[in-house]
Amino acid sequence: MSLILDHTQDLNGTNQHRLTQLYTPPEFVKQASHEQLCGGEESLPPHLFGSVSRRVYPCHTKAATWMSALFFGDVQSQLPPSEVAGIKSRLIKSATHWNIQPDVEALWEKMAADAATGMLKLADDDFALVWQGDNDSKERHYPLRNAVEVKMASHWFGQYHDQFQFDDKHVMAKKILAKAASFGAMVENQELLDQCAGYGYCAAAEAAAAWEKRAGLTRQRHADHAAHAAGVAASLRSCTFEARDQGVRVKMAGLMDQFDRQTGLDKLYDDGGLERPEQVLFRITEKVASEFLANHVQTTTGAVYEKMALASLDIGHIRKWLGDDFADEVGGVMLDTTKLAEIVPTLPRPEAEMFERMTAAAGIPTFAREKTAADRGLTTNELAALAAQYGQEQVLRRNQPVSV
After folding, report:
1. Cα(283)–Cα(278) distance, integer angstroms
2. Domain locations in the chain as residue ranges
3. Minimal CB count within 10 Å: which of 208, 216, 304, 392?
4. Distance CA 180, CA 153 (A)
5. What's the rounded Cα separation, in Å, for the pair 274 and 32?
6. pLDDT: is 377 or 203 the higher one?
């Protein structure tokens, strides 16, 4: 494919779109007509081109000169050195004539700096913040090219995330976390990033309670909003929405964020005692959920145990209740808690019931019980919701039934 040198050769406008996304053109360029940028039906005289021999880089107007400078800055490294100096000299001469020499020189300086750092080769996903402005202009901030830049972006996100709507925070947090994983970078605000990225869970009852609280806070000044919040809460209470579905909760977080901003409830974050949408809907992050799963086991009868509690079982006690074969399989002489945790979830229902009676006799209570788990094990999401229900900060051994 031949090299496109300037905007007169860029027939489908692809390069012009790419370059003007990176370098926002002045207003006089945005408002210029095709003729002002490229020339009319009649050919321009040779002296009005930056490259006389190639008849490219037109300079017949102020707008054409700036656009030619933009394209030249993009491809000059691919041109013969013998041509570069002459083209650059003629473009500067034209820019001086049109009183835009400082603009052109600043443009080239910025393009050279970006080329040196590889910025021109980066995609939007390589920046934490991509801001789409008016007239198709675009700004890209906080590059994510290495672990150091990822840490800087994480620090910045922690300081300024409240200035952005949830949908924007969601995109930025996912980018930062993806790059952090790619570079093996330890980021600040891990929990905040996980929650804004939607990497977490909550119980449906907690989501409903958050909407009910918002309904109560807005009932006097925003009756319509309050009615809407109450309706969402009622739907959650009746399980119309599946609060454990990540896609649903991401959409709901965006909706809740808009609700808070429109009603002024966002002023109650932190000191006012109101939790942000992401703090409610993604309260139990995947990290916490995985830790919960790693530290608990569940039987086919629905009983959930803490692994640490099972470590107190005596191998002789196990042999007495479940037989020699089972006892040998989980250690023989000394109990292998890891092996026990692997086998317990697979026990058929009769043996699982016997296991429950054995733990009760040994004084080991269940952490919780899932009432519908007799025919199926808890999913990752359900166990995460269970962790949310009980509170990860105080993991207590309890006997009371839990409905998840």
Report:
1. 7
2. 14-121, 124-197, 200-282, 287-394
3. 216
4. 10
5. 51
6. 203
Q: Nearest CA to 37 among 56, 18, 12?
A: 56
Report how far residue 77's alpha carbon sits from residue 161's, in angstroms, rounded to the nearest whole number.
Answer: 39
Question: How far, in Å, CA of 197 to CA of 51, rounded?
Answer: 50
Residue 264's contacts (CB-CB under 8 Å, 6 or more residues apart) are none
Is the pLDDT score of 250 beyond 50? yes
H or E element at residue 354: helix 349-361
DSSP string, 156-204: HHHHHGGGS-HHHHHHHHHHHHHHHHHHTPPPS-HHHHHHHHT-EE--H
Closest by CA to 135, choosing from 220, 38, 29, 240, is 29
- Closest by CA to 259, choosing from 289, 202, 220, 217, is 217
Mean pLDDT of 296-302: 83
201 touches 244 (CB < 8 A): yes
Cβ atoms of residues 210 and 255 within 8 Å: no
Which residue matches tokens 């004539």?
97
Q: Which residues pair with 284 in a beta bridge?
A: 201
Structure tokens at 253: 């977080």
Alpha helices in 311-348 (DSSP H): 315-329, 337-343
- Indicate the pLDDT class of residue 118, thresholds 50, 70 and 90: low
What is d(CA 378, CA 203) in angstroms, rounded to the nearest whole number?
14
Look at strands 127-132 and 56-58 and give their pairing.
unpaired
Long-range CB pairs of 35-39, under 8 A, 24+ apart, other chains included: 36/61, 36/63, 36/64, 37/7, 37/61, 37/63, 37/64, 37/67, 38/7, 38/8, 38/64, 39/8, 39/64
Q: Residue 388 contacts by C-beta under 8 Å, 6 or more apart in sequence?
A: 201, 202, 203, 206, 283, 284
Q: Which position has the token pair 């017949």?
A: 60
Contact residues for 88 (Cβ-Cβ < 8 A; gap 6+): 72, 76
Q: What 3-state DSSP class applies to 89? A: helix
Query: Which tens digit of pLDDT belongs to each residue from 274-293?
Result: 999 999 998 877 666 667 77
Question: What are the φ and ψ backbone dihedral angles of 253, each rounded to 5 degrees?
Answer: -65, -40
